[in-house]
Amino acid sequence: MFSFRNVAAAMALAATAQATTNTLTFVSTDNVARTVYITPSVGVEGMDPVTVPAGATVPVNFAEGFIGNAYAVQEGKENVPGMLAEVNFQGWGGSTYFDVSAIVNSADTDNVMMMYPADAPNTPTSGCNPFPCNNAYYLPDDVQTKVTDQTNIIVTLGGGSANTTKRDVNSAATGKNLPRNLVELKY
């Protein structure tokens, strides 16, 4: 038997399920504007590049289950992929998996720097400031992927001070590392 109460409850449940917003929040920590290029996994909807002005914070929302990466290019520089911010939203067990990867271009030490959950203090970070460090991927078989139940991940850009962020990320660089296949692109 259908009732208004049952329909309303089902609609509320559906709204709650759809309320999860997957976000990479790009935080510029210096005085350089950048364009962020986002590459999705095959079969996942792509998106246009995003401009992050110097010193600005720009959130970018993603579809449920998004798997992909992002890299940044400084204004006026050639578009060459560099340090990658890799993410898998609603991955295994419904968790978010993320890491900073230097595999493509470890010489890029001025763009993507760190990743960490925005709303979960004392959680693991990936990446570092400055590079190099032992908290990023340099080889495909490194074990550096981080996991969280959060769906808003901060990605710092530039080597400036991260004082625009909510917490001291360096104190939270510890945590369990997971295999790379949890966030790598599937071709």
From TrEMBL:
It comes from the Eukaryota. The keyword Signal applies. Residues 1-19 form the signal peptide. Keywords: Signal. This is DNAse1 protein. It comes from Sporothrix brasiliensis 5110.
